[in-house]
Amino acid sequence: MLRARRLASTVVAASLAVGGLSACGSEPSVAAYLGAAGQVSEKEVQRIWDDTHADLAAQAQAEADEATRQQRFKEEALRNAGEDVKPAPAVTPAPVQMPFSRGDIVNELVTRELYEQVAADRSVTLPAQVPYEQEAAQRKLPAGTEYSKLYIDNLYMQSLLIQSFLSETPPADADMLQVYNSLGANGGVEPGQDFTTWLSLQSPQNRQVVAAAAQVREQVEGAADELNVKVNPRYQPFEVSVLEIQGESDPLQLLGTDLGVEQSVPVADVS
């Protein structure tokens, strides 16, 4: 079960949704417009998808080849023991299961640009050494792929930005309520525990993280407005997470803003 005390110890990040792309009909090759920063093309999205698919297919083939080799080794041992062994068919590679969608690729590419804008104003940079393989393994992403690097870079940048805003300023109750609702909808709040009780149990560290994430959210929204970011309708609803924790299978968004697009996280009733 998820617990709010984990907020400050998790790689956290920022969340917004960006408006639709009215020019989609005339430029279907564009996944997202980033204003003066350029655009995300469908060709780039497909390239990242294809490269990852090829890597996973090669990995599946290598695993099948190794399984076949082990089978042949066992067969040869049985023959040497005097048994009549019919060779088994070669092992067929498992079908490739992509761990993300094309929409996820667009999300990470747009997120990178927005965070770079905010990071420049905050004089925040990524560390020289990022443990990509370790982080990819924890998140069940294919190590060494461009998508994994992009995803992990964004997580680290988001965390660093939140750290840059940490202060004694208390969070708004509305932001804490959004965190409570998100946790409650996903089993992260004790049964029957209302918002007031839950709030009273939150540590100063948790409150600081939520307050800082809210400030990052404002900066990211400002960057999106300044660039006039527009995302192709095929990738709507589009959200970039502002505060999240890693759940048992997928990340859970705790804090964000929809900018007119419906939130993807269900809201629990507050008793």
Write a concise keyword list for the protein shown above.
271 residues, mainly alpha, 3-stranded antiparallel beta sheet, 7 strands, disordered N terminus
Could you characterize the architecture of this molecule?
By secondary structure, the chain is mainly α. Helix content is 48%, strand content 9%. It is built from 7 helices and 7 strands, in the order E-E-E-H-H-H-H-H-H-H-E-E-E-E. The chain has helices spanning 42-80, 102-122, 132-138, 146-165, 173-184, 195-200, 204-227, and strands at 15-17, 30-33, 39-41, 230-231, 239-241, 243-246, 251-255. The strands form 3 sheets. A 3-stranded antiparallel beta sheet has the order 3-2-4. Strands 1-5 form a two-stranded antiparallel sheet. A hairpin with a 4-residue loop joins strand 6 and strand 7 (251-255). Helix 2 (102-122) packs parallel to helix 4 (146-165). The protein is globular and about 80 Å long. The model is unreliable at 1-5, 8-14 and 259-271 (pLDDT under 50).
List the helices and strands and how they pair.
Layout: E1 15-17, E2 30-33, E3 39-41, H1 42-80, H2 102-122, H3 132-138, H4 146-165, H5 173-184, H6 195-200, H7 204-227, E4 230-231, E5 239-241, E6 243-246, E7 251-255
Antiparallel strand pairs: 1-5, 2-3, 2-4, 6-7
Helix pairs in contact: 2-4, 2-7, 4-7
- In DSSP terms (H or I, runs of 4 or more residues), the helix count works out at 7
User: What's the number of extended β-strand segments?
Assistant: 7
Tell me the strand order in the biggest sheet.
3-2-4
Main beta sheet: 3 strands, antiparallel
Q: Could you spell the SSE succession in H and E letters? A: EEEHHHHHHHEEEE
* Tertiary shape: globular
Strand content: 5-15%
Structural class: mainly alpha
Q: Could you tell me the radius of gyration in angstroms?
A: 23 Å
